[in-house]
Structures are given as C-alpha cells and as structure tokens.
Amino acid sequence: MPKQSLTLLLLISVLLLVSCSSTNQIEALKPEPDDATPLIYENIASFINLPVNVKLKDIQYQTNTLLNGLIYDDNNIEDDNIEMKVWKLAPISIINHNDNSGEKIKTILPLKAVIKYRIGTKKMGIELYDTREFNLNGVVTLVSEVGLTNWKLNTVTKLQSLEWNESPTMTVFGKNVPVTYLITPAIQLFKSKIEKKIDAAIAKSMDFKPTVLAALEKICVPFLLSETYKSWLRIVPIEIYSTTAVLKKDNFILEMGMKCNMETIIGQEPESKFNASKIILKPVTKIPKDITANIIAVSTYQEASKIMTKNFIGQEFGSGSKKVQVQNVNIWHKAGKMIIALELTGSVNGTVYLSGLPKYNEQTKEIYFDQMGYVLDTKNKLLRSASWLAQGFVLRKIEEHCRYSLQNNLEEGQKNMLPYLKNYSPMHGVFINGKMAAIEFQRIQLTNQAIIAFLKVKGTIDVSVNGLQ
Prior knowledge:
469 residues
C-alpha cells in the first residue's frame, strides 16, 4: 500500500475514534406513564355575593306591561253568581308604603268595572233569579306585603280604598241609575279578584330566575386570565342562597350568594360547565360579605413541558469540551412521582430520564422537583458511557432549570382580574365589583393528566343585578 494512502487511512481512523469518544449516543429505556388518579380533584367551594337590586319603577313598568286594557274577564255567572269585567283606565302607579308594621308597596289602579250579580235560587227546576249589573269607575288603592317564594317576589295584597271618579251606577231597564248607597257592600264581590290579579301580575313580572340565571350563564363563560400562559378562569355554580326580599325606599334588595367552584385551566379555552337545571335556590338568613375564593390551577403536563422547555433555551451543562444542551422537555406521572424526559444534543445525544416529587417554593412562587435523580436504567447507561453527566453537580445544574414559576402567572392573573372587579358588566343590568388580596398557595395534587395547584385568595366579589328585563 502506498505510504500516502496508509497515512490517510490512519488519519481517518483517528478522526473517527475522536468523534466516537467525544459524542455518545444514549438509548435509555423510557419509563412508561401509569394511571394516577383521573382528572377528578378535591375542590373547596368558593362563595360569591350576588345581590339583586330592583327599583319599584321596574316593577311598575313590568306590571303595566302585563296588565293593559281588559285586565280581568269572568263571563261565567253559573259558578259563583258573578260576572265581572275590569279595565285599566290609566297606567298603574307602584310606590313605597311605610306604616308601623314595616315597608310595603302601594299600588294605585285606575279602573272601570262592570259587575253582574245574580240573586235568587233554583227550585224544582224553576229558576228564580234577579240579575243586577253594576258600573264602577274609580281608583283602587292596594297595599302589599312582600316576600320571596321559588325565585319570585311573593305579595299578599289587600284593597285599602276605592275612590270614585263617577257615582257608581246600576243598570235598570237599560238605564244607568246612581246607586252609591248600594255599592259599598258590592265592593266585596270583586275585592278578592282584584287583589289576586295584582298578586299574580307582580309574581309574574318579578320572576328573578330568568335574569339571575342569564347573568350566571354569562359569568360562567371561561375568560382568559393570561395570554402568555394561556390560563383561563372558569366558575362552576353549585347552589344559590337567598335572604328574604327587603324593600328600602324605592328599591327591592334581595341578598343572594353563589356557592361555586373556581378553576384556572392552562391550555386551550375550556368549555363552560354552567347547567341551569342543576341550580337550587336555598333560603338563608344572612349572606357573608368577606369571602375566601378557593381556586385550582390545572397545569396539564403538555403545557408544563412547554414552559420548562423554555427554561433550557441557550443553556449548556457540563464542563470543558463535555457539554450538552436540552432541546426539549416532556413530563408525565409515574408511581407518585414526575418523570422528566430531557432530549439532549452535544457530547451526548439521546433522551435521559429523571424523576422527582413536585413541590412549591412559597418565596419564589415556583413549582420545583424534590429528590430528583436519574431513573435507574438512565443512570446505569450514563455511568458506562458518560459518567460525567451522571455526576451530582451536573444534575444540580439541570435541576435548577427543571422548575417553572407561578409568580408571573399569579401576578398577571391578579392584574387581568382587576378589570373584571371594577364595575364590569357582562350583560345589561349586571355589574361585577370586588377586591382581592394576594393569592396564597395551598398544596399540589397529581393526576394522570395534570398537576393541580390549589390556591386561596381572600376578598369580596359582588355580582349585582340591577333591574329586570
């Protein structure tokens, strides 16, 4: 063999040996994920104030809308010997009425009534009846006590007075004859009818359920807390509590509160869990003002892996000529611990696997991994081919980057929450106000799909419903 060829062959052999000695290919066995607890977690309920404020003018408007023109028509005289037609002559007025027994509502109803009253009997198949027709035109004043029953304002109305615009008349031989001296006893004939009609109209116009549920449905649509971390806040209602409706001056105030779960989801926009059919209204005597909101932060392993991958960008681990870079990080759950898969390039190519227990650092607001070490198969392969990478100081350097901070997420979450706590209106007549203190970390729970961080924040949240549509 020529001398030049032999020299070239030796040079290529040396280069290959140097290359093989400086870059190792590691193929460690992947620890397969196991089934941890499914994505069902213990959630401590939160409480949101939900005061409903309705002005008397709203009740007046709704009642006038429901009662218009002919407001009562009973054309069956056979059941109770009475026929009655009642017309509203002008808009109804509803105002506050305060007496010694408390605040009530007063309804002023201008009306016209035609009443047919049958007196007599039926004996042996022979009808012996005398039917009289009364014509009334005046202003009825009614007073109502108020309460709350099954989402509706419940009133017990009593006729207080009746002032005639014209002298009451009775039809005699086709002519209207004044019968003021007879009409007072006849008032009892239609008194209860008018009272029940007013009660029914107010109950129908003051049904809180559609408005409250519409407001809740809007509130329960998940909204974006952080664009950077793609975190969403989702509210899931459980129960609605309510005190007795109270009339204060020209407003009905109904203190309501919502027991709910509050979740922070990291990743894609989650679906709303609002289900109107499952919400129950429960009576209580008092609604607390200061509340503690218990929030869960759901960090899927996929999203946590992306955050941790960013920590390693531009970082090298090792010393001298023996260095590696982490190109990608993947994490998952196995046997109560987290598996961290690091895809390496440099002096070592391949994927190495570490395990550790997730913990939270209250000072730095970071989730980190305690008791971190290479899984057994990875460690054995590193000791045979790249023992320098298995050494403790390299592992500690890698461990420093195997963490992700919640500090910015919490701060940005609080910052992004502020616009929703300053007279935010998700729909007409609904306003959200509140204040919140610093978010406190509680604990971590692992599932087969995510790391669940439990957070607590104290403050007040009021969702006020002003008026009914």
